[in-house]
Each structure stands twice: as structure tokens, then as C-alpha cells.
Design a protein that fits this description.
Length: about 140
């Protein structure tokens, strides 16, 4: 017991520094986890707001604006976590809207949907390829 107390008193500074480092590391990890959760929540909200803008008419005018929809479809490219449902949503909307096109300007929207689906598919292939290389299967 006496040896332990001697060791403890001679290494008190090192033990104190180690404790401070552990406390700092724990705080940093908690901050990063909290920030990640906050960013995911914000991304969720933005994504769903964009989808709403895409499919819902303006609350005041009760009409949809093709240019706004085209911009929304383009912006959906910036949500890689949602690529899978985005492709399904856009494919379904294109099929649904093609059956009843509102105007000739909807062709622009259909093209943007095709561009976005192609973009997502290219990105997914690139990501898959990189993952295979990292995993040693490339």
C-alpha cells in the first residue's frame, strides 16, 4: 500500500494530465456526435421540405411552378444519404406526371428528372467502385 501511495504521489502530475486529456477527448467526442445528429436532423428537414416543394402546389397561388420544380429536382442531388428514395420518388413522379402532362414546359422538368437520376446512378457506381477498391476487392 505504501508503495502505491509513493507511486501515486510521484506520478500525480502525469495522472492529472492523463485525466484532463481523457476529459477533453470525451468532450470532443460528445460534441462531434451531437453535431452529427444535429446535421442529420437538419438534412432530414431540408430534404423533406424540398420534396414538399416538388409535389405540392404553392399555398397562396395553388399552382406549381415548373422552374421551382426543376430547381428542386437539381438540388436533390446534394443529398447522398437519400439517393435511393430520391430515384424511386423521381421515377414514380415522372411516370405519374407523364400520364397527365400539364403543359409543354413539363418536358423541362422530365429532362431534369432524367439528368438527376443519371447523376445519382453515376455517383452510386463511383462510390461502389471506391468501396470495392478500399475493401481489396477491386
Amino acid at each position: 500500500m505504501k508503495t502505491f501511495l509513493v507511486w501515486l504521489s510521484t506520478n500525480a502530475t502525469a495522472i492529472g494530465l492523463a485525466g484532463a486529456a481523457i476529459a477533453f477527448a470525451w468532450s470532443a467526442i460528445q460534441f462531434i456526435l451531437s453535431r452529427r445528429s444535429e446535421l442529420r436532423s437538419r438534412e432530414f428537414e431540408h430534404y423533406h421540405l424540398l420534396i414538399k416543394e416538388l409535389v405540392s402546389p404553392d399555398s397562396e397561388t395553388k399552382s406549381t411552378w415548373i422552374d421551382r420544380q426543376v430547381a428542386v429536382v437539381f438540388e436533390l442531388r446534394h443529398f447522398p444519404r437519400y439517393y435511393e428514395p430520391t430515384v424511386r420518388i423521381l421515377s414514380g413522379l415522372k411516370e405519374q406526371w407523364s400520364a397527365n402532362p400539364q403543359s409543354a414546359s413539363s418536358t423541362r422538368l422530365f429532362k431534369e428528372i432524367e439528368f438527376t437520376i443519371e447523376y445519382i446512378q453515376r455517383k452510386n457506381k463511383t462510390i461502389s467502385s471506391k468501396l470495392r477498391k478500399i475493401g481489396g476487392r477491386g
